[in-house]
Backbone:
């Protein structure tokens, strides 16, 4: 059974354009979780505040993965008025096979990222 994100009409979006839309929405809507208690929302808030304007393609793929099943999943169904966050993430990842598995070389490359300690896969939970 396909999800609405897989059936989305959003196709052919560039990775960087999807990231720009995702980042803009989360930064503008941070207020939605700032008051919520718990480590998940605190971690999500920290992650959102750390999102820089520019990231590598690999970092953007991981941010999209966070939308689909990590710290940004809380807004999976939220929309910027055009598309839902999950639709942006799925459309951006589609050319990469929507894989969340990192090679050893990719993990090593990500260690230099300002987001490295914040990604879900690095969390102790």
Residues:
């Amino acid at each position: 059974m396909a999800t609405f994100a897989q059936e989305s009409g959003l196709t052919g979006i560039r990775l960087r354009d999807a990231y720009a839309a995702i980042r803009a929405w989360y930064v503008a809507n941070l207020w939605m979780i700032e008051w919520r208690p718990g480590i998940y929302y605190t971690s999500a808030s920290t992650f959102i505040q750390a999102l820089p304007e520019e990231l590598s393609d690999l970092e953007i793929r991981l941010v999209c993965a966070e939308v689909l099943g990590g710290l940004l999943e809380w807004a999976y169904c939220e929309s910027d008025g055009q598309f839902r966050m999950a639709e942006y993430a799925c459309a951006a990842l589609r050319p990469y096979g929507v894989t969340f598995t990192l090679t050893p070389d990719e993990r090593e490359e990500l260690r230099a990222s300002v987001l490295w300690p914040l990604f879900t896969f690095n969390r102790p939970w």
The CA atoms of residues 117 and 123 lie 8 Å apart. The chain has six helices and no strands.
